Amino acid sequence: MKKKSTQLKIGFIGLGNMARAIINGIITKGGIEPKEIIGSDISLPAAEAAGKDFGIQVCSENAMVASEADVLILAVKPQYLEYSLEDVKAALKKNVIVISIVAGKSIEYLEGQLGKDHSIIRCMPNTPALVGEGCTAYTPNDKASDSQVEIASTLLSCFGKAIRVPENMMDAVVGVSGSAPAYVFLFI
Questions:
Q1: What's the mean pLDDT in 82-96?
Q2: Beta-strand pair 10-13/71-74
């Protein structure tokens, strides 16, 4: 996870439950220091809670997060993604790794919003990630280098298993892995 002599700066756009699970995992299992994490959220109370609970830097500006992040994790609800990306796209660093956990938004969509020159990794963690036992399917775009995919896989493994799948299988994986835990809980 080291970037030469310093750690990667991890940015979060959205600080809801799944983002909190990821933050907890990368701090406790990934060895990332809270000072290396910055996040923003449309909800000021959510941002303040994440700052207090994890000791991360929080702000109200998506562009500020994007400008500082080496790895930018998009963790907003699908209906807020387009609005969030308006703030983000002009501020992205050249070699940033963009990881999206936004349901239903394909790599093609993300490239259309951000440009095809960015390394994008689409993934979908499931609810057991909240307790560090998730299963996250992920798929990179063609721009993502092997080392960037490895960084993303390592981060995603901090809160459960991370499994690479082809883009055309992502919706099926989301349907199975996203719904299966809920059915098990229902049976229990």
A1: 92
A2: parallel
